[in-house]
Amino acid sequence: MTARIAIAVCALAVSGCAQWSAETRGEEYVYQLVSAVDAVQSARGARDPACYTESAQPAAVLIGGHPSPAAAIAWGAARAGVHAAVTGILDAEDADAWVQRIWQFVTIADESYYVHYNWSIGLHFGGARAPAGAPCRQASP
Q: N or C, where is the chain less crowded by C-beta within 10 Å?
């Protein structure tokens, strides 16, 4: 269910981007997909507060170290919406292509880092449990 919500949020965030260039659209799809995976991982970690703590900033401040799964998805949805809005503003204002590429590269790399880190501590897309015998760790560095 959580994954479906995250994918729906991703689809909504990019639904208004038909007027963007194919390159910008593709980059936005990649960002939204990676962001949805991060949100699902965070929601799965939220189901196991004894083992996982959200420590990434500003998420830890805004949704707390032990958010509910709904709060983790809401935070992911907010990030997705803000990202799509900034991308839209850059496009509407005809920002230089290099500015748009750097925006996408940095934000995709940032989200990818968190997805990799979450995976490394056992927050796999299919479940929240760390491998047997693995110590509990924070959900974000």
A: N
- Residue 16: per-residue pLDDT: 58
DSSP letter assigned to residue 135: P
* Whole-structure pTM value: 0.80
Q: Which two three-digit tokens encode residue 73?
A: 């998805």
Instruction: Provide the pLDDT for residue 52.
Output: 78
Mean residue pLDDT of the chain comes to: 80
Cα–Cα separations (whole angstroms), residue 137 to 51, 91, 92? 6, 39, 42
Between 21 and 109, residue with greater pLDDT: 109
How many other CB atoms are found less than 10 A from the CB of residue 105? 12
CA distance 34 to 111: 6
Query: How far is Cα of residue 34 from the mean position of the Cα atoms in its chain?
Result: 6
Query: Which amino acid does the sequence have at 2?
Result: T
